[in-house]
Amino acid sequence: MLFRKIESLIENHLKSDSQKVLLIDGARQIGKSYIIRHVGTKLFENYIEIDLMQDFLGEKLFDKVKTVDDFYLQVSMHFGDKMKQKENTLIFLDEIQTYPVLLTLLKFLVKDNRFTYIASGSLLGVTLSETPSIPMGSIRKVRMFPLDFEEFLYANGMNNLVISSIKSKFEKLESLEENVHNKFMDLFHKYLLVGGLPDAVNSFIKDKNIHTIREIQTEIQEYYKADASKYDNERKLKIRRIYDLIPSNMENKKKRIIVQEIENLKGKTFNNYSDEFDYLISAGIALNVQAISNPVFPLIESAGKNLLKLYLNDVGILTNILYKNNIRAILDNEKSVNLGSVYETVIASELIAHNHKLFYYDNRTKGEVDFLIDDYDTLSVVPIEVKSGKDYTIHSALNNFVHNDDYKIKKAYVISNDRIVKQNDKIIYIPVYYAMFL
Fold first, then answer.
1. Where do runs of H (alpha helix) occur along 172-283?
2. pLDDT at 95
3. N- or C-end of the chain: fewer Cβ atoms within 10 A?
4. How far is CA 198 from CA 3, 32, 159, 205, in A?
5. Do the beta carbons of residue 342 and residue 320 sit within 8 Å?
């Protein structure tokens, strides 16, 4: 079984006296149902799992449910013998977005206090934004992501002792020994190919067959497109067009979305597609990075919506699109291949998986810095530059940024392939695998 860091969060919530239902939100095929099932069967004698999407496509038992009593009656049709007491009965509502009324009903189920509940959904972000009566006091929404690099390391045989010792090195700004560095770089490059979708990771561990891994990634990518089509018929073509444009946009110098390219129509602005962007982000299949022109803490106060960068939610899907079955582009460090967008996708995924909101610096005269994050310990902004090539010490925009007294920058990171950790004034150079500790 794959180690997922969210497991302890789920377990602690279910063991607590919380009066809120935990909602696990996230894109499809990232392991939400699996990890909830694992924890639920471990903690509860009576575990009830209801796949509401399957119900919608089949019996439609929950289609007309409006009240708590209606809900209990429908559950009892298949699970009446397991409906015991709150402390030993867990009801898992999977794909709850299928019936938005059940999100509202959660408040009353919690108040009735008869059983313990947990829920998940592939499009919860979208559904909640469109649900007029959200029981905010009764739910705790947590977003789940594909496996990050640390979880990938665990899947490939690393243990907590190794990870802890590496983290200690990072905190002391110490470099790894060359043989250890080479091992981590090897696994990092394989992570670029495999990504963090559980089915792809399991396939890699079992068979090491890139063809099979790519088939899995292609299928899941098509799932994401199908979701967009199914839930928003009027805007489906524009949503799919924006999604398909993400890889090519990332190859551009600025990497941000050019709205005129979506339909090849002049005069269009971001506001014409704001709903489509919100859909992709809320569905969890795209990661958004907002532009900042005045980078002071907290960043959210000066975030702009009109200059937006989008990254795919999984680096394996990206490398499948870019390189298909050719693994040499990544594993052999082909000089003709620029991995800049691939590296940036990993860093975006790492940062957002560690609960950072993503921003970037954009200034017409002073240049662009890849990522900005808030540092709540020092109440300052931390700029991050990502470099995939050997010229990682060349970064004029970052230099100007950290030396601007108005921004009050205390430290910055340059992430690269180089093994040596070093600090030059405010800029700290770290190897790319250390990003898992940011």
1. 178-194, 198-207, 210-231, 236-250, 260-263, 274-282
2. 94
3. N
4. 10, 10, 19, 10
5. no
Buried b (16+ CB within 10 A) or exposed e, 73-98: ebbeeebeebeeeeeebbbbbbbbbb
Cα–Cα distance for residue pair 148/201, rounded to 1 Å: 11
For 192, residues 6+ apart whose C-beta sits below 8 A from its C-beta are 315, 316, 319, 330, 339, 342, 346
**Which residue would you say has higher pLDDT here, 347 or 239?**
347
Most confident residue range from 83-92, 291-300, 323-332: 83-92
| pLDDT for res 132 | 64
Is residue 362 a contact partner of residue 293, using CB atoms and an 8 Å limit?
A: yes
Q: How far apart are CA 152 and CA 2, in angstroms?
A: 9
Q: Are 197 and 220 in contact (CB under 8 A)?
A: yes
* Cis, bond preceding 298 (omega within 30 deg of 0): yes
| Token pair belonging to 34 | 């699996």
Give tens-digit pLDDT for 93-112.
999 999 999 998 999 999 99
pLDDT of 134 above 70: no
Q: Which residue has the tokens 């996230």?
A: 26
Instruction: Kindly report, residue by residue over 306-352, the tens digit of the pLDDT.
Output: 778 999 999 999 999 999 999 998 988 766 678 999 999 999 999 99
- Which letter does DSSP use for residue 120 in this model? E
State residue 148 phi and psi, 5-degree precision: -80, 180
| Of 71, 53, 49, nearest in space to 62 by CA | 71
